[in-house]
Amino acid sequence: MSMTISRLQAMIGGRWRDGSGPEYATEYPHDQRVVSHLRAATEADVDEAVQAAEQARQRPSWAGLRHHERASLLYRVANGIRDRAEELAQLQRLDNGKPIQECRALVASAAGTFQFFGAAAETWEETITPARGDYLTMSLHEPLGVVGAITPWNSPIASEAQKLAPALAAGCAVVLKPAEITPRCAIELARICEQAGIPAGIVSVLPGRGAVVGDALVRHPLVKRIAFTGGTRVGLGIQRLAAEKLMPTSLELGGKSPTIVMPDADLDHAVAGVLYGIFSSSGQACIAGSRAFVHESIYDAFKSRLLEGVRRLRVGDPALESTQVGPLVSLFHRETVERYVMEGVADGGRLLAGGARPEGAPYARGSYYLPTVIEGVSNEARLCREEIFGPVLALLPWSDEEDLVARCNDNPYGLAAGVWTRDFRSAWRLGARLQTGTVWVNTYKVFSISTPFSGVKMSGYGQEKGRLGILQYTNQKSLYWGLNETPIAWAD
Ligand code: NAD
Fold this sequence. Notes:
Bound molecules: nicotinamide-adenine-dinucleotide
Mean pLDDT: 97
CATH class of the largest domain: Alpha Beta
Structural class: alpha/beta
Number of domains: 2
Distance between the termini: 80 Å
CATH superfamily of the largest domain: Aldehyde Dehydrogenase, Chain A, domain 1
Oligomer: single chain
CATH architecture of the largest domain: 3-Layer(aba) Sandwich
Number of strands: 23
Helix content: 25-40%
Strand order of the largest sheet: 15-16-17-14-13-19-20
Shape: globular
Strand content: 15-25%
Largest sheet: 7 strands, mixed
Radius of gyration: 24 Å
């Protein structure tokens, strides 16, 4: 893909146009080159998009569609994504610097998400509940209304599809605010939705700042749900505002996920899984396995194999097919990661790998940071408590299972965990005791759209995947049909 600078427009209430806010540029993390220019949206743009969405969703062209008709539009979106898969993957790479192989996987997952929720819509069944008297009772679901979707920069196309697809499948309209620095896939998704025949106004995409566009979306009286993925601090703010209008939200927030290596683990599998769990996406993943608890009896063997694996990781240009670890999303974010590592060392941590920027011409302008392994930090240190969102792994030995479980759970977050063992009993036992939304046993960071995903504790709530994910975008309504042959006796 050429590196020409694109001029982007927003999709606001059925019209392609510039946002009304200030001009800004996005940069390619590999070399900080400007790759796009656009104007940010404003509060007035949000209002225009939401008003248009509210009208569009009530028109027969959307509200009147039967489930199978809406499903066929979602299938067309899925195919539209597949038709442009390589282009979308390259756009995502230019936005956030993820290795191209990962970008392709995310695009494929986005297409699968639209297909899945198309199928969910098409096969949706309402229930006739058991009657307890002389009446018939039904439980039905209606679209919630206008949904505000707010997404982060780390896996834009996948996060955006996970909100758009179930909301559209449920018959809602969506105003999507992508992360300011990664707007391109969202904008192209709006184009694909338009080309698929989704009526004008049903999907708007408004790039811009969270504190302006995101905030206006959350506060807007016609927005009936916020589907948010991002950091816990911002999620808490959204929940506070949502409370004022009694608006439901789903919050997919941060994580500090533990990975447990049991004494009987297959070390080849465990090492590969821990490497992938923390260093893919340069650790910029909510489910990054950033705390590895390794049994003391195998600690040294695990450590030396792990470090051998780290040395072999191919860090570099995300455009290359062979690259495993790309740059961090920005120079600013790299400084945050560096501060955590410096503090970890000051807290007594010993650097076993990384802890520095890679040297040499290919890395000179990019926001690169080497895969970093650190031991000797306590589970209470900031490095082990807070989400770093970078390629930083803390190695922590353990010996007693009670203590292990307590340390894994002694963290504000509860998104995911991994267990590496050959013994299904210990996997079951630990899996049940770990306070997380997902537990991976002898695997890590695998996702399936048909399996629900959400966090617990400060990692948020509200399931995004799975067939029932569609329910979040509906109001449940009950219908009672009286079958009495005589008037209600009370009124006699
Ligand atoms: P962030 O919270 O800074 O931003 C996320 C989105 O919220 C962006 O679009 C941003 O512009 C917007 N935003 C910022 N302030 C806002 C406000 N006041 N009101 C409304 N919207 C606002 O997060 P980020 O740095 O873009 O992404 C990284 C974070 O996302 C990490 O914490 C990561 O763990 C989390 N994440 C979670 C999941 C999950 O499924 N649990 C998945 C991916 C990323």
